[in-house]
Each structure stands twice: as structure tokens, then as C-alpha cells.
Amino acid sequence: MTTTTLTPRLVRVDRPKSGGLLGPLADVWAMTRRNLVHISREPMQLSDVTIQPVLFTFLFVYVFGGAIPIPGGGSYKDYLLAGILALNLVTSVMGTAVGLSTDLHEGMIDRFRALPIWRPAVLMGRSAADFMTSCLCALIVGLTGLVVGWRSDAGIVAVLAGFLLVLFFAYSLTWVAQCVGLNAKSPESAASFGFIVLFPLAFVSNAMVPTAHMPGWMQAIADWNPVSAVCAGVRDLWDNPNPSHVISAWPMQHPVEASLIWSVLIIAVAAPLASYFFKKRCTD
Question: Which residues contact 103 (CB under 8 A, 6 or more apart)?
Fold first, then answer.
């Protein structure tokens, strides 16, 4: 009697891949929709882009507005709105880091790896969904500004350009946040990114107050802070009071150009890093 030993062979099964350009675009939309559905099931995730802008606008206008003079004159309400918009959009980026870290530690990223999708779609879908929530935040800030008395003498094209300028900058920061979320040990540690980096970035700037009365060393930091360039650029586009135009620092003399340069540089550095970290976490 002869005994035959059967040795199992490992057979590799290739996953089907989406073809052409429409395949990756469909994957990006699927990931974007997934993030939007997740938000719709937990609406309080949007508190930082819905409730916070309203509270900040009323707080700064009616509590601090009368105590903050604008060099060269002008309404503090008109000066403030660009800063409120930048402040809310910059600090809301913290949600990107927390959301991606949560997906990572709850095993969702491992599930995505098993799907026949274009791998970068996970990160691009996250950034696209967060950009949409940023647009909602910008709309709420604009409407709240109109309620408290903010006005612009610029045309509709310039006003829209101002909103797009700060939205583009916020979008660039979402890629930095994704780098943080992919390297955070927990969602809680990812949340600390906002308090350690984003809040100082937003407040050590000309967003809320002119920088002329800051200590010399702090004013130098504020004048080269990308948030200051974004706020100054939006104020120029909206034809709102902009005391920073008398400051000799290059970003304050060319705020729109400086804002675009900062945004492009941040994406150019952070997007490849996020892709690298994502690939590394998927292969660990």
C-alpha cells in the first residue's frame, strides 16, 4: 500500500484592479463618500466647522471688538472676518489627524488593504471630504459675518477669490494632519497636534489682532507666519482694513503670492510624506 503525501501549494490570487482614469477617480469618490456618510451619522463631528465659527465670531466682535483699535482706522468687524475664517479652518484640520488615526487603530485601514482599490484613494478621499467640510465652514463664517455687520467693497470675484485662498491653504494643512494621524500612537495623541501646533500657528499671527504691538521677536514670527499671509491676502482681496501692508516683511507686502507659495510648498512636501507613511503602515 502506498501513501501519497499531498503538500498544499500557496496559490497567489491577484485582485482585480480598476482600469483607466475612471477607476482611480471612482475609488477616490468611494472613499470620499464613505467619510461623508460617517460624518452624517455623527453630526457632532462638524461642531468645529458649524458651531465654533458662530461662537468665535460673536465672541471676538462683541467682547473684544471695542477694545482693539485698527491702525489706520477701519471697522474691527471688517478686519476680523478674514482672521476668524483662517482660525476656524486651520484649527479644524485637527479632525483630519484624529479621523485617520481612528481608522488606523480600529482596523479600517487593514480592511481597505483587502479591497481592490487604488491605494492613494484612501488619503485623497479623506482630504476631499475634509475640503468639503471646510467649504461648509467658510459658508457659515461668511453668513455669520454678514449678520454681525461685516461688509466688503470688492466685487464678487474678489470675494470668492478670498475664500478660495484660505480654503486652499486649509487643504494643504490636511496633508500635514494626515502625516500626523498616520504616525500617532492613538487618536488622543493625534488630537494634541491641534493644541501644540495649530493653535499657536493660528493665534501668533495677525488673524485676531494687528502685529504692530507685539514684542519684536514675536512680531517677526507673526509676520512670516503663513496664517498671517493668508489673512492679509484675504483682506486685500476683500478690500477690508489691512494694517499689515505697512510692514516691510516680504509676505506682508505680497500676501496673496506668499499664501499661494506656502500652500504649494506644504502640499509638495506633506503629500509625498503622507503617501510614504501610509505605504509603510500598510506593509508593517
Answer: 109
Task: List helix spans (H) across the chain.
Answer: 22-41, 47-59, 76-92, 94-105, 108-113, 121-148, 156-183, 187-193, 199-203, 216-224, 226-238, 250-253, 255-283
Look up residue 165 and give its three cell numbers.
485662498
Report the 10 Å Cβ neighbour count for 242: 25
- The identity of residue 129, as a single letter, is A
Cβ neighbours around 12 below 10 Å, total: 4
Query: 191-202 burial by CB neighbour count: b if 16+ within 10 A, else e?
Result: bebbeebbeebb
For residue 99 the three cell numbers come to: 479621523
Q: Which residue has the cell 488593504?
A: 113
Q: What is the pLDDT of residues 159-170, one digit of tens each?
A: 999 999 999 999
CA 193, CA 12: separation in Å to the nearest integer? 41
Distances from the Cα of 107 to the Cα of 36, 101, 110, 255, angstroms: 19, 10, 5, 42
- Exposure letters 119-130 (e unless 16+ CB within 10 A, then b): bbbbbbbbbbbb
Q: Which amino acid makes up residue 17?
A: K
- 3-12, 63-72, 168-177, 237-246: segment of lowest average pLDDT: 3-12
Count CB neighbours of 118 within 10 A: 18
Query: Residues 217, 191: contact at Cβ < 8 Å?
Result: no
**Which residue in the block uniquely carries the three cell numbers 480600529?**
106
Stated pTM of the model: 0.87
Q: How many other C-beta atoms can be found within 10 angstroms of the C-beta atom of residue 245?
A: 13
